[in-house]
Amino acid sequence: MTLPQQFSVRPLALTLAGLACLVAGSVRAETSPYYLGVSQRFTHNSNVFLNTDALAKSDTISSTGVRLGLDQPISRQRLTATLSANANRYSKLSTLNNTDYALDTRLDWETVERLSGNVALSSRQSLPTDAAALSSGLRNLLTVHSASAQATLGLVTMWSFDAGAALSRARYSETTYARNNVNQASLNAGVRVTPASGLTLRTGLRHANVDYPNTGNEVRRNDLDFSAIINPGGASVFNGRVSLTKEHQSLADRSTNSWTGALGWNWKPTGKLSTSLNLTRDASNGAYDFTTGAINVAASNSAITTTLGLTTQWEVTSKVAMTGSLSHARRSLDNSLTIGNGVLPSSASDRTSSLGLNVQYAVLRNVDVGCGVHWSERSVPSMSGSSTLTVPYSVTTYTCFGQALLR
Q1: Least-confidence region, from 207-211, 306-310, 327-331, 347-351
Q2: What average pLDDT does range 314-339 have in this prediction?
Q3: pTM (2 decimals)?
């Protein structure tokens, strides 16, 4: 996919105003399965390269974007597709100017019997959020293509069976970081049972192949999953998973046995307030997203990450919504997957705390504006190990945006 490298801010700003007028005049029109929109976002970042405080460089970024979408029922099926693209322009660090995009398509299908499932495709490009990938100070774009398919047999029965597959391909544009390019493929299958109202149990198997083509290293991962969803019938829903995980790395010729898993609590006391609390522990390679059915992009240096996160959404009024988030993550790191070509073995650990708040206001039915602030700080123990794997930093970002959609 080729996208234009330059967007003109002034015409898009005029288009935004024009769309707002069109939307205002068509509020009562029948909703279309298609939508078209434009957006403008301004972000001030206090530490663009996520470097140590002494070396931090700040900048203000203008992001001008377009939005396209489709949500079309087709008999028992539903087809959805979204495309967003943004021209990001830095006030001072112009070498980082880039165009990001995210294209997602999904088909949810269902037969007349008890068989259902989905097929999803995705393509994305952006600057990575991994601090190690930004530390070079160069424009290091990450492009990820992925595909997944999932099927379930037994929709309303006590027993159901599911199976699926997923693929992903991640590439970095900066040649000095190309050793982190990775291909991933996974298969999964499981059995689900609902022995009582409000209780669902599942056991399943997962297998993942993770290939680093530029280093010749391969990871084979196998997981045995045990999970449960408990809905006691009130405002709370609980979920949990424990997995027995085994990894084998070909280059280091070593195998590791560990446990991974997740705990979650979703609380919705009213129709306007919801809170989710989640605790996860997982290895980065072959990590599976149980919500989307896709493989998460591997962070090659992260061996095990434990994350505690809290998110609260509050619909203050019919026009004003607030979202707050709080998280803390602990990582153990090593570079065993990307050694070679002069890269020596090393290990380290770090801790990252984050806090965010966003406020959004619906000016009209399809016109939104909002602002947010996000703070993050990473600490590295003095005896942790190699400084090439992680560095301490702190960063604060302030963002304001406007978006108009024509449906």
Answers
A1: 347-351
A2: 88
A3: 0.83
Going by C-beta distance under 8 Å and a sequence separation of 6 or more, which residues neighbour residue 2?
Answer: none
Average per-residue pLDDT for the chain: 85
Contacts of 211 (CB under 8 A, 6+ apart): 182, 183, 184, 217, 218, 219
C-alpha 47/C-alpha 42 separation (Å) is 15
Q: How far apart are CA 143 and CA 99, in angstroms?
A: 11
For 157-194, how does the pLDDT look when each residue is reduced to its tens digit (9 = 90+)? 789 999 999 999 999 998 888 888 899 999 999 999 99
Cα of first residue to Cα of last residue in the chain, in angstroms, is: 25
Name residue 319's amino acid: K
